[in-house]
Design a protein that fits this description.
Structural class: alpha+beta
Order of helices and strands: HHEEEEHEHEHEEEEHH
Number of domains: 1
CATH topology: Glutaredoxin
Shape: globular
Helix content: 25-40%
Low-confidence stretches: 1-7, 30-36
Radius of gyration: 20 Å
Distance between the termini: 65 Å
CATH class: Alpha Beta
Number of helices: 7
Length: 241
């Protein structure tokens, strides 16, 4: 089953104005003085604001996959980016197309602000045998994902077919493949901060897209953490090194 999007000029115009309004909200919310920025309280603020938000705050699972250009990429290649990552398979008859549309909504809002230079959207297939690069490219086009800062990833030719399903498990949710080719799975969007820190998860598709935009903006503008004062033992080691 393939979900097709039909053009609706009035709907598109309404969506554009809504996105612009959100971007303006982001700018007004986070353009205050540094002292008023959520900073270290960002996770707490978002946790109180969004019930489908989960703090992870640990290193993201490493990966080595093939991107849409046939290049082998790793997590460290995106060390200077904030990644918005989700897993899909294109023959999914229900939630995967809807998840892609949710990602597209978030991308549209982010891309109408300077955040587009920092945020990279990543779609990872859990069915690499069926989801060839051509199929994944069409999937992105069908769901209006902007290749300016969106890419898909799949397994490299020399990798096992279940590599990306194991990666999904490392991110905390399972894509169980049945005999009919369909996969049973949950829906989670992962946010990876610069430097490869797995910052948070947004569960399901009922979370407010604006909250993910605000959270991403908060990560971009988060003040650097103050350097911790070294203890006397570290200072003594430094003296002899």
């Amino acid at each position: 089953m393939k979900f097709m999007k039909h053009a609706n000029p009035r709907h598109d115009m309404a969506s554009t104005w809504a996105a612009l309004a959100v971007v303006l909200t982001v700018i007004l919310t986070f353009s205050s003085a540094q002292a008023h920025h959520p900073g270290a309280e960002l996770d707490k603020v978002m946790g109180n604001k969004e019930k489908f938000f989960e703090i992870t705050d640990r290193p993201a699972p490493s990966f080595e996959l093939m991107n849409r250009d046939g290049e082998i990429v790793t997590l460290s290649d995106y060390a200077d980016k904030i990644l918005v990552v989700h897993f899909v398979y294109t023959s999914c008859p229900d939630v995967c197309p809807l998840h892609a549309e949710k990602i597209q909504e978030i991308q549209t809002m982010i891309n109408q602000s300077p955040m587009k230079e920092v945020v990279q959207f990543v779609t990872i297939t859990t069915d690499p045998k069926t989801d060839t690069p051509e199929v994944l490219k069409t999937f992105g086009e069908d769901h209006n994902l902007n290749p300016m800062n969106w890419t898909f990833m799949t397994v490299a030719p020399d990798q096992a077919e279940d590599t990306t399903r194991k990666l999904a498990e490392a991110f905390g949710h399972k894509f169980a493949k049945g005999d009919d080719g369909y996969q049973t799975h949950g829906v989670v969007t992962h946010v990876i901060d610069r430097g490869g820190r797995w910052a948070a998860n947004f569960h399901g598709m009922r979370f407010n897209s604006v909250n993910m935009v605000l959270y991403t903006n908060g990560l971009i503008n988060k003040p650097p953490e103050p350097k911790k004062d070294r203890g006397w033992l570290d200072k003594l080691r430094g003296f002899f090194n």
